[in-house]
Automatic annotation (TrEMBL):
Domain EAL: 335-589
Signal peptide: none
SMART domains tied to this protein: EAL, GAF, GGDEF
Listed SUPFAM superfamilies: EAL domain-like (SSF141868), GAF domain-like (SSF55781), Nucleotide cyclase (SSF55073)
Descriptive protein name: EAL domain-containing protein (Putative c-di-GMP-specific phosphodiesterase class I)
Organism (species): Pseudomonas duriflava
Length: 606
């Protein structure tokens, strides 16, 4: 703002107050238009304006005599007027060094005379002006005219203050809202030694939706007012209750001992638990109280978000109340950040990629299969392991898109290997959500055909637990995959339900014994016994057995001794990118008992 006015000393608070009026960019309001019109007639000026001085512009709430909506702040006369307590008068703008080169003076509308009275809130913050404009020079307003202009301004401010206080009130409960809570808490935080904010969720927001659909808005409003009344009786006299969301209330506890505070929270929790009846219909509440000590938290923390989140967790976990926990909060924020960026990752080049880890025949050392393992290079958070993001994705429908992405990428790569003459097969990890999709096997068949990969070259790895989620659907899809000619491996075997009755019904080819049983070998006799029984059982049922997590040559010897058919693990090879796997394969022609010393050096772990 090279030629513009200086900024008021309270500019930030001024802008906050201006926003709190909700007037900026709001539709026309006859009350404002009438005042502008009266001002124009009373003072016999062609233009009268109610102008709000925003950060970089002045926005006209009402303008009589001109067709305009806003101008840049640097040309604004009103930006000068808000610096003054009384009326700013410019008799002839062409003679005033501040304005003589102003485009609104030299060009349209050709301002010569200006008189602007600031619109000041009860806290002393000037939001804008009521101003009179003429295109001819004029004499200054006399004292009775100034009184009149000030009166009009006062009328206007009454209206603005009323609108402002409305924006601090929840329309249904008539309680102060979250903006008021934020402002009150900030003011009290500076004075109180101990300021505790409590958010009270009364029921699930999802439940609110059902309730609105079933019983309608009126019933909801009556119910929420009933809960409000109940809650108010549970709080000490004079405690201000806030309504901060459709199913959420809040209150502040100032300078109370931890014991008193605890007692109050228990009282609220118990008082809200159970049935609440409105209009003869009982509703089961499920309260969740989030608690945060504002004096012990960093001032930069968005505490209201953290508080609401804490109450949500308390409600979902049915713990009643819960104190804000920064570690949990950060983990939740990270999980949210990851989940939100996954859809982008799926569609951008280079964020997701595949590694492949060989599975070798323990007797011959030949690589029979490579397992595809997903990798994610997050543009901001760096490398994210699948153990972190796959379980998150599995909570949403995103996992299906991920699986299809993986299947496409694996088949594309595999087709190249096949064309180059490689004979190993490839395995793909899939999750219970994939098997819930009634068209999964069909789509896999389409993709196999598209990439011209024979189904017999592909194996799908599923965990026991993922089968149990929806057994019949899972079995139908696995049957269909098997029918195509693909193989099925049971992954992490031994860690799940181990329900043999169910497992027998799954068309299985390979059992992959989980690393946790393998790692302790050969020293751990119990593990050795378990592994041997698993191997015997699997062989008796006609399955091949793979030992996962082969980390040393001793383990390799042990699993061979115990009858496992194949091995996979860091001692044999780390997971690696496709081109590195090709190099590894060129050198991995030695017997496993001799070790895989020819692995690319970056992948040798022992
Ligand atoms: P998993 O299917 O059991 O894969 C084996 C995991 O063990 C891999 O971890 C692999 O890097 C690691 N591993 C291999 N050899 C050894 C060893 O000798 N010692 C130890 N300690 N670990 C070894 P990764 O790649 O981090 O994958 C973790 C899990 O993420 C996988 O476990 C699988 O459940 C899931 N996952 C990975 N890729 C995909 C995918 O494309 N789709 C789905 N649905 N899940 C995937
Ligand atoms: Ca696996
Ligand atoms: Ca596994």
């Amino acid at each position: 703002m090279s030629n513009g006015a200086a900024l008021p000393h309270n500019e930030i608070e001024r802008l906050v107050a201006l926003r709190s009026t909700n007037l900026l960019d709001s539709p026309a309001d006859p009350a404002f238009d009438h005042i502008a019109e009266i001002a124009s007639e009373l003072f016999d000026v062609p233009i009268a304006v109610i102008s709000l001085v925003d950060k970089n512009r002045q926005w006209f709430k009402s303008i009589h005599g001109l067709d305009a909506q806003e101008t840049p702040r640097e040309y604004s006369f009103c930006a000068h007027a808000i610096l003054k307590e009384d009326v700013l008068q410019v008799k002839d703008a062409l003679l005033d060094p501040r304005f003589k080169d102003n485009p609104l003076v030299t060009g349209e509308p050709g301002i010569r005379f200006y008189a602007g009275v600031p619109l000041v809130t009860h806290e002393g913050l000037a939001l804008g002006t009521l101003c009179l404009v003429d295109t001819h020079p004029r004499a200054e307003l006399d004292s009775s005219q100034l009184r009149l202009l000030t009166k009009l301004r006062d009328m206007l401010m009454e209206r603005i203050e009323a609108l402002r206080s409305l924006s601090y009130v929840d329309p249904i409960t008539r309680l102060p809202n979250r903006s008021r809570l934020l402002e009150d808490a900030e003011a009290m935080r500076r004075e109180a030694n101990e300021l505790v904010a409590v958010s009270v969720d009364v029921f699930d927001p999802g439940y609110l939706n059902d309730l609105l659909n079933a019983l309608g808005q009126d019933h909801y409003e009556g119910l929420i007012r009933t809960i409000q009344a109940r809650l108010q009786t549970l709080l000490p006299d004079g405690t201000r209750l806030y309504c901060i969301g459709a199913t959420r209330f809040a209150f502040l506890v100032q300078n109370q001992s931890p014991a008193t505070c605890k007692g109050l929270l228990k009282k609220v929790e118990l008082g809200l638990t159970g049935l609440i009846e409105y209009n003869g219909i009982p509703i089961e509440t499920r309260p969740g109280l989030g608690i945060i000590n504002l004096n012990s938290e960093d001032e930069t923390l968005d505490w209201l978000r953290a508080l609401i989140c804490t109450a949500d967790v308390a409600r979902e976990m049915r713990t009643g109340s819960r104190y804000y926990d920064s570690v949990h909060d950060r983990a939740q924020q990270r999980a949210f950040a990851l989940l939100s960026s996954l859809p982008v990752a799926l569609h951008s080049e280079g964020q997701l990629s595949l590694f492949f880890q060989p599975r070798v025949d323990l007797k011959t050392g030949i690589c029979r299969c490579v397992e595809s393992l997903l990798r994610w290079a997050h543009p901001k958070l760096g490398a994210i392991g699948p153990t972190e993001f796959i379980p998150l994705a599995e909570k949403t429908a995103l996992i299906r898109s991920i699986s299809y992405w993986v299947i496409d990428a694996v088949l594309e790569q595999y087709a190249r290997w096949k064309a180059a003459g490689h004979t190993f097969s490839v395995s793909i990890n899939i999750s219970s959500h994939d098997l819930d999709d009634p068209h999964f096997a069909e789509r896999v068949a389409e993709k196999l055909a598209l990439h011209r990969v024979p189904p017999s070259c592909v194996e799908f790895e599923v965990t026991e637990n993922s089968l149990m989620c929806n057994f019949d659907n899972a079995r139908a899809q696995l049957d269909a995959l098997r029918h195509l000619g693909a193989s099925i491996a049971i992954d992490d075997f031994g860690t799940g339900y181990n329900n043999l009755i169910y497992l027998r019904q799954i068309p299985t080819d390979v059992i992959k014994i989980d690393q946790s049983f393998i790692r302790g070998l050969p020293g751990d006799d119990k593990d050795a016994l378990i592994v041997r029984s698993m191997v015997d059982l699997a062989h008796a049922l006609g399955y091949q057995v793979t030992a996962e997590g082969v980390e040393t040559s001793n383990v390799l010897e042990a699993v061979l001794e115990l009858g496992c058919d194949e091995g996979q693990g860091y001692h044999i090879a780390l997971p690696m990118a496709a081109n590195e796997l090709e190099t590894w394969l060129e050198h991995a022609d030695r017997h496993p008992r001799l070790g895989y010393g020819n692995s690319p050096s970056s992948f040798v772990t022992n």
